[in-house]
Structures are given as structure tokens and as C-alpha cells.
Amino acid sequence: MARGVCADAYLQAKTIVVPEVDLYPGHIACDGETKSEIVCPLILDIEGGPRVLGVLDLDCLAPNGFDHEDKIGLEKIASLIVKACNW
């Protein structure tokens, strides 16, 4: 069943880097010009285990627009967003 990158990152509770969106099974295009994408889950650590609250989704007009350093940096940003909000 096609779900898209955002749903997959949310359900798997992990960051997904997509070098070529046209090759990602079930990709849902928000912008037809997007060539690559990265989606980081927003994870809140609570009693009873972590809870995914949403995702941080970035698109790029170039193929291979995101790398491992981007993944690390965006995961830190996602963590800061979660910590800065009163959930």
C-alpha cells in the first residue's frame, strides 16, 4: 500500500533520505519539480516509550540533495523543535 515518505518516516520513527523521489515506492509529490527529499520524525520521549508527534519534511529540486551530514543536522533540529514546544 502506497503511503509516501512522510508516512513511512512517521510509522518507522526514523529519518528517511530519498536521493531520487521518482524511485521511491509510493512517493506522493507535493511539488512536481522535487527530485530528492528528507523526512525526520519529531519524537517525544515520554514515560512508556517514545512517541512520534509529526515529521519535518524538506524537499530539494536537485537529485541527491541531502547527505548523511544533513541527516544528522536535521535530526538535531527536529529534537530542538520537540524540546521547544509544550506538547
Low-confidence parts: none
Percentage of residues in DSSP E strands: 25-35%
Count of helices?
A: 2
Side by side, the strands of the main sheet go 1-2-3
Q: Rg, please?
A: 13 Å
Specify the structural class: alpha+beta
Keywords:
Beta-Lactamase, alpha+beta, 29% helix, 3-stranded antiparallel sheet, 87 residues
What does this structure look like?
This protein has 87 residues and is of the alpha+beta class. The protein contains 2 helices and 3 strands. The protein has a 3-stranded antiparallel β-sheet with strand order 1-2-3, with helices on both faces. Strand 2 and strand 3 form a beta hairpin. The longest helix is centred in the C-terminal third of the chain and has 17 residues. The relative contact order is 0.21. The mean pLDDT is 93.
Question: How is the topology of this model organized?
Answer:
Layout (H helix, E strand, L loop, with lengths): L4 H8 L3 E3 L17 E11 L2 E12 L7 H17 L3
Antiparallel strand pairs: 1-2, 2-3
Q: What's a quick, concise take on this entry?
A:
With 87 residues, this protein is an alpha+beta fold. It contains 2 helices and 3 strands, in the order αβββα. Strands 1-2-3 form a 3-stranded antiparallel sheet, with helices on both faces.
